[in-house]
Amino acid sequence: MTYSTLMVQLELGQPNTDVLRITADLARRFDAAVIGIAGCQPMQMVVGDGYICGDLLAENDQLIVAEMAAAEQQFRTALAGSVGALSWRGNLSCSSIADYIARAARAADLIVASTAPDIADVQRRLNLDDLVMQAGRPLLVVPPAAPLLQRVLIGWSDTRETRRAVADALPLLKMATQVVVVELDYANEQDAAHNRLDDVCAWLHRHGIDATAVTAVSHGDEAKQLQGIANDQHADVIVAGAFGHSRLLEWVLGGVTRSLLVPVGRCSLLSH
Question: How far is 225 from 182, CA to CA, in rounded Å?
């Protein structure tokens, strides 16, 4: 198993430096083809908002075309010489950007996207929550100044989503210099947690991956605690299942998935 094709999402009107740097490194390591993709919705008009003149709509369309061309140029310049096969997809669609990328993900093994910029412009904003839920592919979220992916921490929870994420991460785990599997649980469940991690590490070993198991008693804020352990382990990326609990519950209470969709200092690799 490998990542033979990567799909990297570019933000229009943004430099995209970090997401392209991480993608170029992965493309070299896996000898992968890369598809660049960017999406945008047309200017939204709501009845009652007032009249929007045709000239303004035309100017907006021209701006989008120019931003698409600039994003493609960024993509080709950053990845020239890194891979043998590059292709580009840009689209202006009434559907959401997440819908567009999720459908296109049929052509790729891994989606690489940057943390969503803090913009109010719904035309250009990608909802990463929707993308990870819809894509059926692992999603690598890249924050600013993220390190290259060498040391991996797996945030283990005995759920379907986590099992899927670890299987999806196997190519990356095989190339990692360090793999740590962490489970946070209540004090009276530590023995069961040890047994679960023994199974996970044994399975990884049969795939040629040496992994270290770490269990810890949950202090309640598991997202913060997991990040603290990742800091201690100098992890470059956290692998985890996305929305193992109710998505609505995570919206209300926060949670590990919510923190990993807006990572700081390291990447997140998520699957649902």
Answer: 11
